[in-house]
């Protein structure tokens, strides 16, 4: 658990982070979102002591981070930055091995870990281990950056605009992968972005920052249902609230049983798709309902246009 209490950072006369208090629970992904210059990166960098707070307290699992030597602290916290920050003259495998080497892991354990992470991030070890960063695409470099941050199995990972440089399609795939990896590894993640869609897609909780202050910290649903401040409503896009709500619900969770007396719907969505995707499909096909299919492709129920509309209504 990461706890921030009254954390403030001045540069000159200006508090670029101003009296921020929040708690990130173990295993959660907290997304810090706000405009450029709102203080997001500074806030993140105080957690691993790349920046020291002017006042306030930051603790991890009850331990004040200012009492832990910075280099020791950073070995236990993964850090991913935009543009990935890979070492250009080291191979992919050597990049990923950076922290395990610092920790003195035996060679064979490092080699196993590197292969495991490459596979987890869908980069074939045989092809990528010996390559250099400049031989990879932006998306591949970014995945290597994530693998490096995860290498020593940190409990905490800090990510600063990790997907900023990716094109929209790779970006959305990278976001899905990150969610899946987090679910598997159980890491606590704090991710900074200026992209509200990304925040809604990834965050268990979202902190909306403006001018150094956190205007609201809550679940995506809270942000839409109960914006604490008109600026939050403006940033979350009040006009898009319905679509954002639909994006939070899985079709499988909204599925209703089939009515045996009517023929099954001719089109379908996977249970893992969101109702936002289901709505897009309903509009596109002109149908009034869709079958919802499970992992094995078999129908598990249906979603109707009427139920999608209900889920998107203002809470
Ligand atoms: N080392 C520094 N010295 C002086 N001012 C700084 C320093 N680092 C950051 N700032 C200022 O603090 C403010 C917040 O910067 P920060 O990088 O935290 O914002 P951000 O929300 O992450 O922005 P972006 O999305 O553009 O990266 C900015 O106005 C920035 O110019």
From TrEMBL:
Transport found in the keyword field: yes
Sequence ranges assigned to domain ABC transporter in this UniProt record: 2-236
Domain CBS: 261-315
A Pfam short name: ABC_tran
Superkingdom of source: Bacteria
InterPro entries: AAA+_ATPase (IPR003593), ABC_transporter-like_ATP-bd (IPR003439), ABC_transporter-like_CS (IPR017871), CBS_dom (IPR000644), CBS_dom_sf (IPR046342), P-loop_NTPase (IPR027417)
Family: Belongs to the ABC transporter superfamily.
Matching PANTHER family: OSMOPROTECTANT IMPORT ATP-BINDING PROTEIN OSMV
Protein name from the UniProt record: ABC transporter ATP-binding protein
């Amino acid at each position: 658990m990461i706890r921030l209490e009254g954390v403030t950072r001045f540069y000159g006369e200006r508090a670029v982070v101003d009296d921020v208090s929040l708690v990130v629970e173990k295993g959660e992904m907290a997304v810090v979102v706000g405009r450029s210059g709102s203080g997001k990166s500074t806030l993140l960098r105080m957690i691993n002591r790349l920046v020291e707070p002017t006042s306030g307290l930051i603790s991890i699992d009850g331990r004040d981070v200012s009492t832990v030597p910075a280099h020791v602290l950073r070995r236990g916290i993964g850090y991913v930055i935009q543009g990935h920050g890979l070492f250009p003259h080291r191979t992919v495998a050597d990049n990923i091995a950076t922290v395990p080497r610092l920790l003195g892991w035996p060679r064979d354990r490092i080699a196993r870990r590197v292969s495991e992470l490459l596979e987890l991030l869908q980069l074939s070890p045989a092809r990528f281990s010996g390559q250099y960063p400049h031989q990879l695409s932006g998306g591949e470099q970014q995945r290597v950056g994530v693998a490096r941050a995860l290498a020593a199995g940190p409990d905490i990972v800090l990510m600063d605009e990790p997907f900023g440089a990716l094109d929209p399609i790779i970006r959305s795939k990278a976001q899905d992968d990150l969610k899946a990896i987090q679910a598997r590894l159980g890491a606590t993640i704090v991710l900074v972005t200026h992209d509200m869609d990304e925040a809604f897609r990834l965050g268990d909780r979202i902190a909306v920052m403006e001018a150094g202050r956190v205007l609201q910290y809550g679940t995506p649903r809270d942000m839409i249902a109960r914006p604490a401040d008109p600026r939050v409503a403006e940033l979350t896009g009040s006009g898009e609230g319905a679509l954002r709500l639909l994006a939070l619900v899985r079709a499988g969770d909204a599925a209703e049983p089939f009515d045996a007396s009517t023929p099954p719907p001719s089109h379908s969505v996977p249970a893992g798709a969101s109702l936002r995707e289901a709505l897009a499909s309903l509009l596109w096909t002109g149908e009034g309902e869709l079958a919802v299919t499970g992992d094995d492709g078999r129908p598990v129920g249906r979603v109707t246009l009427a139920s999608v509309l209900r889920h998107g209504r203002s809470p």
